[in-house]
Amino acid sequence: MGPDGAYGGDIRVGDVDNDQIPDFVVYRCATPSTEGDALKPCFIAAFNLEGDVLWKIGSGGTQPARPGPVILYDINGDGNDELICLFFDGESDPDSTRLVGLELQIRDGATGELVKSTAPEALLAPSGSGANWVHQRLIVAQLSPGPRAKDFVIKLGDTLFAIDQELKIKWSYTSPWTEYQKCPAYIPTVGDIDGDGLDEVNGGYFLLDHDGSVLWETFLGPNMDSVAIAPWDEGRMRAICSGSGQILDAEGKHILNLGPEVVPHGQELRLGVFDPDLPAPQMMIRYNGHKPETMLVDNEGRIARRFRLNDSPNHTGMETVYPEGPNGTALLFNGGELWTGKGRSLGRLPELPPEIGNFRQGWYHCIPANIKGDAGDELIVYNPWDRFIFVYGNQTALSDSSWSFYPDPRQYNARLLD
Fold first, then answer.
1. Nearest-angstrom CA–CA distance, 119 and 104
2. What local confidence, expressed as pLDDT, does residue 170 receive?
3. Which of 164, 123, 151, 155 is nearest to 137 (CA)?
4. Which residue, of 15, 279, 389, 404, is most buried by count of CB atoms within 10 Å of its CB?
């Protein structure tokens, strides 16, 4: 906390009071911001677009080493987003290799008051260290019938848990692969790949049905760093996997496999219509690890072009944005700049300060959001090591009263790769 009451930390965006104006939460963690941390949020504060603090819980902490187990989502359907998080009691040993001292909580988003909590041994017993351990992200998922998602998943080390709105564990899945660079995606993703109205879970080496049953499970090569479930060929939903650039169907059959010669280390990928002159949608993939080397792959599996993105401290942070709306042409955000599908930078976002912080988190995250209801994306940009949030609009002024923000998966399930 700074002298003027400002906080630095990781950010989530939602609407805690159902006024269609975005609100934010910032959180900090008890464990040091180092490579092998379990992320133990010990301080969370909510504030509005003007920067007014709405509530705060806990105290202390430092910037989390990575985006962690905190989300804003209206899980009970009352119109206001709830805060769902793992929260540290502040008294237990903050040993980063264990989850001791944590509770799984749902809090009223408008007040921060505790609604329900649990500390199930099955969930909080896992321990570990290293890259497969430190990514602990809550992901909202439609695992039960109904008009809206009422469940979420979290991966803790080698095990993925599905949890309902009553904080009961529905099922779990444990991966047989745990070796560094040869383990499933650090952050799984969800989406309805089989068309039954319920979400599957793509972990890169496995696809799980909504009930946790395994649809397919296979080692697809190293560096499975980024995954998606998204439409690809003629609108069919597919499992997109960064490791060597692969796309699979619900049965595990390859639709596309660029191979390790073309994609030696698929660090991250994004989907979108980046070049309207090419078969679409297309895949933008950072194909050579933590480097700025990127390629655009069209919908027929052809490499349209390779180009070098601007540097970002960890060479991660790509995000698809649609300034003209979902039917327009996409741009790629990276390290404070926007890029076209032709491989041309549009320059750094105006008035964005230089990066501060460590090599992994000292760069700008981007969360696209349709804040104004004008079809086009606005950009919510922040650096966890700094105390400012920047909101970039398209053509509609952000200072008037014509707000129309309704959170969607791009906000409550923000990728925020590191």
1. 6
2. 98
3. 155
4. 15
Picking from 125, 107, 101, the residue whose alpha carbon sits closest to that of residue 31 is 101
* DSSP track, 360-409: TTSS-EEEEE--SSSSSPEEEEE-TTSS-EEEE-SSS-SSSS-------H
Task: Give the SS3 label for residue 41.
Answer: strand
Alpha-carbon distance 122 to 150, whole Å?
21
- Kindly give, in sequence order, each residue whose CB lies less than 8 Å from that of residue 261, ignoring residues fewer than 6 positions away: none
Of the candidates 147, 191, 190, 153, which has an alpha carbon nearest to the alpha carbon of residue 173? 153
Residue 1: its pLDDT value, please?
A: 43
Q: What local confidence, expressed as pLDDT, does residue 398 receive?
A: 54
pLDDT one-digit tens code per residue, 122-172: 999 988 887 788 888 999 999 999 999 999 999 999 999 999 999 999 999
Kindly state the tokens that stand for 269: 């990928």
Give bridge partners of residue 207 from the DSSP assignment.
Answer: 202, 216
Q: Strand, coil or helix: what is 45? A: strand
Quick check: 391 and 397 in contact, CB under 8 A? no
Query: What integer pLDDT is reported at residue 3 of this predicted model?
Result: 47
Cis peptide before 281 (omega within 30 of 0): yes
pLDDT of residue 342: 97
Residue 275 burial class via C-beta count within 10 angstroms: exposed 0-12, middle 13-18, buried 19 and up? buried
Positions of the chain with pLDDT lower than 50, given as ranges = 1-3
Distance from chain centroid for Cα 342: 26
Q: Which are the contacts of 220, defined by CB distance < 8 A and separation ≥ 6?
A: 204, 205, 241, 243, 244, 246
Residue 155 exposed, middle or buried by CB count within 10 Å (0-12, 13-18, 19+): buried
Cα–Cα distance measured from residue 12 to residue 19, given in angstroms and rounded to the nearest whole number: 17
